[in-house]
Amino acid sequence: MTEEDVHLFDVLVIGAGAAGVGVGVALKHAGIDNFLILDRYQVGASFERWPEETQFITPSFPTNSIGMLDLNSVAIGVSPAYSLGVEHPTGKEFAAHLCSVAAVFELPVCKDAEVLQVKRFDDCFLVETAEHTLRSKLVIWAAGEFQYPQAKPFPGAELCRHTATIPSYEDLDGDDFIVIGGYESGVDAAYHLSCYDKRVRLIDAGCPWEDETSEPSVALSTFSLERMQAEWFEAQTELIPHCPVSKVLRDGDKYQVHAAGGLLFESRSAPLLAIGFEGSLRLVSDLFEKREDGYPLLSEQDESTVTPGLFLCGPAVRHDHHVFCYIYKYRQRFAVVAKAIATQLGLPAEELENYRKWGMYLDDLSCCGEECVC
Amino acid sequence: MTEEDVHLFDVLVIGAGAAGVGVGVALKHAGIDNFLILDRYQVGASFERWPEETQFITPSFPTNSIGMLDLNSVAIGVSPAYSLGVEHPTGKEFAAHLCSVAAVFELPVCKDAEVLQVKRFDDCFLVETAEHTLRSKLVIWAAGEFQYPQAKPFPGAELCRHTATIPSYEDLDGDDFIVIGGYESGVDAAYHLSCYDKRVRLIDAGCPWEDETSEPSVALSTFSLERMQAEWFEAQTELIPHCPVSKVLRDGDKYQVHAAGGLLFESRSAPLLAIGFEGSLRLVSDLFEKREDGYPLLSEQDESTVTPGLFLCGPAVRHDHHVFCYIYKYRQRFAVVAKAIATQLGLPAEELENYRKWGMYLDDLSCCGEECVC
User: Fold this and answer.
1) For residue A59, what is the DSSP state?
2) Alpha-carbon distance A29 to A20, whole Å?
3) Using an 8 Å Cβ cutoff, are A53 and A169 in contact?
4) Beta partners for A8?
5) Hey, what domains does chain A have and what are their CATH numbers?
6) Using a CB-CB distance cutoff of 8 angstroms, which residues of chain A are in contact with residue B359?
7) Residue of B nearest to A221 (CA)
8) Binary contact (B372, A223; C-beta < 8 A)
9) What chain A residue is nearest to B218 in terms of C-alpha separation?
10) Hey, are the CB atoms on A78 and B372 less than 8 Å from each other?
11) What is the 3-state secondary structure (H, E, C) of chain B?
12) How many Cα atoms occupy the beta-carbon half-sphere of A195 within 13 Å?
């Protein structure tokens, strides 16, 4: 056993993406120093792997000077609009931003550390990586979703290609694409393919292009809706709503997409799956109770109800019907988690009160869900 | 004297633009009903007159459901991103949004009422329009700037055309333009002209394209910086920094722009002035003390220091070095003014406390001015 192995951390954060970096800064602000952020690759690795063309749907604007956080900031005092000079960062740009945040706040990041197992043992956690077993009083699971695409939604899904595995739409062979899933990533795929003069059929079980709500977790973003109005999108893309896919088959050099009502779509290129992510949570699924919808059941402090000391940060956080996807939503819970942890460690963490005025401390969920009247 | 003339209003708001509509909603929320908003034309008229191509530089996104106001909202519960479905509204689009806000909140707007004079008389104000003299206990000056371009910055400026007077860049005759002023509206002019394949020389006394700050009142917006990277902008536009213009002359069919250091620029089209606005304040300049920089001196409640009962809303509001331009900044003072007025009228205005959690109640200026670290 190496010296490292016997050290007892106060907190281990799993994942150095938006959630891991954001909650890491909050831990620092709470006065916690004895912690480590582990990442399978490095800071922002999942963003780094986004398709080259894919951009954030939420616009960044440097509004720090009026006390309003940039929508895509993971911490107070930073703004990707300022550091990157773009409104809709690409994944690679945002990864660079996260690296600069980690550097400025001197976050203790341990890269190339793939977590294989998290176990509760006596009063602490044992976190196993390929090379070490680390010990910690508390654990924050902040691993992302992007590297864990949802892969088996229907028979034959293994014949399709998930959009998360595409390095660049420009490099895809073929002229004719079927995209299954019409939300943000489906529209993104169709938009870029149509930019490259490909023909696209965009299939969805519902009709996300017409949802009338101002709730951004449900409605398609303005960014995507505007893209759908581009001349080339309209010319190249056929929208096929209310068409649940039942199976995908291969017939010689063609792919067959079978849908409800006996509909059949064929293409020579593998159909693209734009249907979201399973997430990394299965790695720790035994440490959480499950809600009816499969998401982990959490305490009011985002702690596991069956494994005390294990917290969850990121887009998988759910409370009642509140969905915390997108950075500007789940970032509002970083301080809640940091405060709960500081309290367990006996620290006052007064600096975290500052998070409230920045809209970064959401402990009253009653304010959520307000829609627009116009 | 008509019956209307003897009615005593609690408040008259001058101007039904972003400031007038926004503070009007705040008055409603404060429980004030006996008020009227006067506009020379109609709701949003100044935005209606923007050049057709000009868009908001601040991005809209419908974040109401997480308690974060759309950057371009003038009131809680509304979002131009949601009602318009665009990220950077044009002036005409935003005017339509303001009309819908006025309708939803049932604001008492009196259009086609040009205010000629505001006088303090006994314990009330007399507000003269072409047709009526209205009486009111209190007045909010919320008239805009756009219809009052700064016109005489140097000799010969009258030979130039202010960008605020251009209905559409597409319809401008000529192939070769000199734009004087390189901030947002100058870059906007150059961008659209270059889109239409015109050659542009963009002249500024400083070098706004390189200011390194995250303060959006000073730095060029991401929107403009991204436009400057467009292929056609780079191909068609020549940037001429550190070049204060001394005079403009006409020589036959040519315009001559003389600048510091003996530089001379010629064009057949009238030079375009993109140098900001004088504002409407001269109409009531005798009712305010002046700061050293010419802006009106205001109490902590944005009330005139020499004419009690007269309040100011809009982009001309200044406190110390704090500039409240852009809607997302000056909107933070609507509730401050509404609260001061409610207090004078003996109303508790408790509902205004709700403005705080939406970042719409800025009474502590110490939080302002925070820049980004990265």
Assistant:
1) P
2) 14
3) yes
4) A135
5) 3-147+277-367 (3.50.50.60), 157-273 (3.50.50.60)
6) 66-68, 359
7) B61
8) no
9) A65
10) yes
11) CCHHHHCEEEEEEECCCHHHHHHHHHHHHCCCCCEEEECCCCCCHHHHCCCCCCECCCCCCCCHHHCCCCCCCCCCCCCHHHHHCCCCCEHHHHHHHHHHHHHHCCCCEECCCCEEEEEEECCEEEEEECCCEEEEEEEEECCCCCCCECCCCCCCHHHCEEHHHCCCHHHCCCCEEEEECCCHHHHHHHHHHHHCCCEEEEECCCCHHHCCCCCCCCCCCHHHHHHHCCHHHHHHEEEECCCCEEEEEEECCEEEEEEHHHEEEEECCCCEECCCECCCHHHHHHHCCECCCCCECECCCCEECCCCCEEECCCCCEECCEECCCHHHHHHHHHHHHHHHHHHCCCCCHHHHHHHHCCCCCCCHHHCCCCCCC
12) 15
Phi, psi of B222 (to 5 degrees): -55, -40
Q: Which two tokens stand for residue A181?
A: 């899933």
- Output the six-digit token pair for A61: 């604007």
Q: For residue A359, give how far its alpha carbon lies from the nearest alpha carbon of chain B (Å).
A: 7
Per-residue pLDDT of chain B (374 residues; tens, 9 = 90+): 454 558 999 999 999 999 999 999 999 999 999 999 999 999 999 999 999 999 999 999 988 877 889 999 999 999 999 999 999 999 999 999 999 999 999 999 999 999 999 999 888 999 999 899 999 999 999 998 877 777 678 999 999 999 999 999 999 999 999 999 999 999 999 999 999 999 999 999 999 998 767 676 667 899 999 999 999 999 999 999 999 999 999 999 999 999 988 999 999 999 999 988 877 888 888 999 999 988 899 999 999 999 999 999 998 898 988 888 888 889 999 999 999 999 999 999 999 999 988 889 988 776 666 777 88
First to last CA, chain B: 63
> B359, A359: Cβ pair inside 8 Å?
yes
Cβ-Cβ contacts under 8 Å for B318 (sequence gap 6 or more): B291, B293, B295, B296, B298, B324
CB atoms within 10 A of CB B146: 18
Picking from A180, A162, A160, A189, the residue whose alpha carbon sits closest to that of residue A250 is A160
Q: Is A109 within 8 Å of A233 (Cβ atoms)?
A: no
Per the structure block, which two tokens stand in for A152? 């088996």
| Interior angle at CA A235, CA A229 and CA A238, nearest 5 | 90
Q: Looking at chain B from residue 134 to 173, which residues have their Cβ under 8 Å from any Cβ of chain A?
A: none
A91-104 vs A18-29: helix crossing angle, rounded to 10? 20
Q: Given an 8 Å threshold on Cβ–Cβ distance, is B371 in contact with A68?
A: no
- The 10 Å CB-count burial string (b at 16+, else e) for A45-80 is bbbbbbbebbbbbbbbbbbbbbbbbbbbbbbbbbbb
A81 interfaces chain B, CB cutoff of 8 Å: yes
